[in-house]
Design goal:
Blueprint lengths: L3 E6 L2 E6 L2 E5 L14 H23 L4 E12 L7 E12 L5 H15 L1 H7 L4 E7 L2 E7 L3 H7 L2
Parallel strand pairs: 5-6
Antiparallel strand pairs: 1-2, 2-3, 4-5, 6-7
Amino acid sequence: MDARIVWQNGMSFETQIRTHRFIQDAKLEHGGKDLGPTPKELLLASVIGCTGMDVVSLMTKMRAGFTACEVEAQAETIKTHPQIFDHIDVHFKVTGGAELKNDVIVKAVKMSLTKYCGVSAMVDATSPIKFKIFANGQLIESGEADFSEAMAAGSP
């Protein structure tokens, strides 16, 4: 896996990942021009992108009966440097018809946030990930990511 950034001006960098290019920049209050997301915003999006892909893949394989899936995240940083995320709140919002299987949705999310999502595992080591799962607008489960067993199993 490779990535490259090239300084443009001010606080903005062109980011290159494979054939994809986009701008990262600082917010106005930090000397940037807000031309793109900040690195921490990209990290937060990477957490939910990774777990979202896991969850959709698992729900599809386990025939959860879903028609839509949305994942949202919110994080605040601590006030002292290096200003890491204090914790991350992730909301999974799954919708479907009468065939929607809540138990399968919960199983898929827990599998992602205990075993499969490498981005979440790396971030959760310093910033706990808390989650809530909603099915057709109703809260069906909440909890915290826990990669301790998966990490122990993968240790040399």
